[in-house]
Amino acid sequence: MGAELDGIDEARNLSAAAATIPTHLFQFHAEANEGTVFSDESYSATRVVDGACIFHNRSGFAGGEGCALHLAADHFDESPIDWKPSVCWQLPIKVDWEMREDNVEIATVRRWTRADWGEHGTKMAWCCTEGTDAYVGNSSVLDSLSDELTEIVGTEVFIQLRNRLG
């Protein structure tokens, strides 16, 4: 399935980013040029090519497998947050926002689960947030995903997270 987009502004940004991906980093560059990177005229999702998002470079592609947008951001030494659809760069972080009766908003930071995606979750083998290899690395999620966390919850909440967990 393609990535669902968060409105027309995100679609415009994605279109501009797609146009600047170096050809050697974008396996489906020709398909994008022949048509579009969007699934339809609503510009609400990315196009699917051969069963996956048009930006998903397959295993064995000489320019690198994975997201062509992410590879391009790295190539230009920029943040993937500025290149990728929000649904993509936010993974694997999920924030549940809840407004309390006293008008204080509470942010609960957690991992995505397949259940969060409804019926689509069973088809998302790439979304590896539930396996034993998820969230394992040389640094904490708080450190390795600090840019993403800050963008999602804001600087003030991120500082609170760091103070409580760091």
Give an overview in words:
With 166 residues, the protein is an alpha+beta fold. Helix content is 33%, strand content 13%. The chain contains seven helices and six strands. The protein has helices at residues 8-19, 29-34, 68-75, 86-90, 141-144, 146-153, 155-165; strands at residues 48-49, 52-53, 56-57, 66-67, 93-99, 105-111. The strands form three sheets. A two-stranded antiparallel sheet has the order 1-2. It has a two-stranded antiparallel sheet with strand order 3-4. A two-stranded antiparallel sheet has the order 5-6. A hairpin with an 8-residue loop joins β3 and β4. α6 (146-153) packs across α7 (155-165). The chain is globular and about 55 Å long. The chain starts with 7 loop residues before the first helix and ends with a helix. The mean pLDDT is 89.
Major beta sheet summary? 2 strands, antiparallel
Question: Reading side by side through the largest sheet, how are the strands ordered?
Answer: 1-2
What coarse outline follows from CA principal-axis ratios? globular
Could you say which structural class the secondary elements and strand pairing correspond to?
A: alpha+beta
Strand content: 5-15%
Give the low-pLDDT segments: none
Give the averaged pLDDT, no decimals: 89
Q: How many domain modules?
A: 2
- N-end to C-end Cα span: 36 Å
- SSE topology string: HHEEEEHHEEHHH
Helix segment count? 7
Q: What's the alpha carbon Rg, rounded to whole Å?
A: 17 Å
Number of strands: 6
How much helix, percentage-wise, in residues? 25-40%
